[in-house]
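Structural prep section.
Before we set up the soaks we want a predicted structure of the protein with adenosine-5'-triphosphate in place, mainly to decide which crystallisation condition to try first. Input record follows.
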Amino acid sequence: MLRFENYSKRFGSKTVLTVPELTLERGLYWLKGENGSGKTTFLKSIAGLIPFDGTIQLNDISIKQQPIEYRRLVNFAEAEPLYPGFLTGNDLISFYTETKQAQKEQVALLIDAFDIGGFIGEKVGAYSSGMVKKLSLVLAFVGNSDLILLDEPFITLDHKALQVLPEIIDDYQQKGTSFLISSHQPFTLLEPSVLTVANKTVLPASALC
Ligand SMILES: Nc1ncnc2c1ncn2[C@@H]1O[C@H](COP(=O)(O)OP(=O)(O)OP(=O)(O)O)[C@@H](O)[C@H]1O
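Run finished without errors. Recording the tokens verbatim:
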């Protein structure tokens, strides 16, 4: 269960998002909203990457009071991931495998599913945007996170990866992982609950009726 109380995010003097109170039960959520509405800001706040006012708790664990414990539960894949160009994909995968205490078999399956084995020995600086995107998705699925945040996961992926990604999301969801996914493209096959980011707040679509 993900809970927000008196959440607000300012950049300088400008408040871009407020969520007075919101509880999200375990599940798969599609975060919808226009450009600049606040989807990435919301996801980055939940990932613990940017400061904010108020409270965010996952399973009663507070991002501010128990940051290490909280971060163990959450994985995040950025819309346009950036990694130090001198590292190889293997360097990053090894680091995530260790910090997320992931099983080597799980990692091997992900490398195979996203078909990245042919280039992860090379430095990330030489990757195309789609290759970086696939690597970032593999890293997001490494370990046993309670909540996976995917910011625009479908952009720049090739046809095969576009087919594989929903299957993996479905598989993880059935094992109990929750997802918050921002996307301008529908992914209705997975039957997500819709969250709308508009008017500087986040509301379940049902609340808008
Ligand atoms: N680092 C920053 N400094 C100042 N303002 C920012 C910063 N990051 C985001 N914003 C502002 O916060 C608001 C929300 O931006 P955000 O990136 O969260 O939108 P988004 O819904 O993800 O947009 P898109 O669909 O275009 O990716 C925008 O008004 C944006 O200008």
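Observations: Residues 159-174 form the longest helix (16 residues).
Flagged for discussion at group meeting.
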